[in-house]
Amino acid sequence: MTMGDLDNTPSERIFYFDIDNCLYSPDLGIHLLMKDRIYAFGKEIGLDSASVVDTCSSYYKDYGLTVRGLINHHGIDVAAFNKKVDGDLPLESVIKPDPALRQMILSIKTRRWAFTNAGIEHARRVLKCLQVDDLFEGITYCDYAEPDFPCKPERRAYEKAMRESGVKDMQLCYFADDSVSNVKAAKEIGWTAVLVSKQPPSASATTGLHITTIHELPMVLPQLFI
């Protein structure tokens, strides 16, 4: 199925999979490698070495992604950011194929779509490393070159995912993510959402369904695997 075919696809359930720290374990440390490269990039564009960590952290909190703060406040070259941050990550030497993940995704009885806050090249690299890149109809990603691009947990990011996958009914949407904020936002708009985290959410988080690894998905949504 191609992107152009989606408008004619009959209404049916769809599962949106987050990618980073969801399809692979956060124990691999990819997020730490990315932080190091973001901080180095921040110093390159003139951020003070003593405060670069706090500045980048505040951008992440305020904008959902650090890169959005860097764009808004520093007018960074997005191509340079992609090359020096995402493009420099040694994904192929860290992320290995996961046959069990592949089998689980293949066995789910819904349409399958990747939904990430990363850029498209990073998303494709991760999926290829895991050897699941052929299992998704499409990828909803963040285009850093797009002015005011949406990202999770903003509602318009979820609406973008639905629009790009050709789905209009919120009740047909299922979602797995490692972020409490992203899962809560999905639930608030009517999606069935699953938190993927080794740490159980606090009582106040009210995320609902929770698994420790994505491989456990059939345990909480068995109806999708029958």
UniProtKB/TrEMBL annotation:
Q: Which InterPro entries match?
A: HAD-like_sf, HAD-SF_hydro_IA, HAD_sf, Pyr-5-nucltdase, SSM1_domain
Q: Which residues form a coiled coil?
A: none
* Tree of life domain: Eukaryota
Q: Which GO terms describe its biological process?
A: nucleotide catabolic process; pyrimidine nucleobase metabolic process
Q: Which GO terms describe its molecular function?
A: nucleotidase activity
Which Pfam families has this protein been placed in? Answer: Hydrolase (PF00702)
The record's annotation in PANTHER family points to: PHOSPHATE METABOLISM PROTEIN 8-RELATED (PTHR47438)
> What is this protein identified as?
Suppressor of deletion of TFIIS
Name its species: Coemansia pectinata
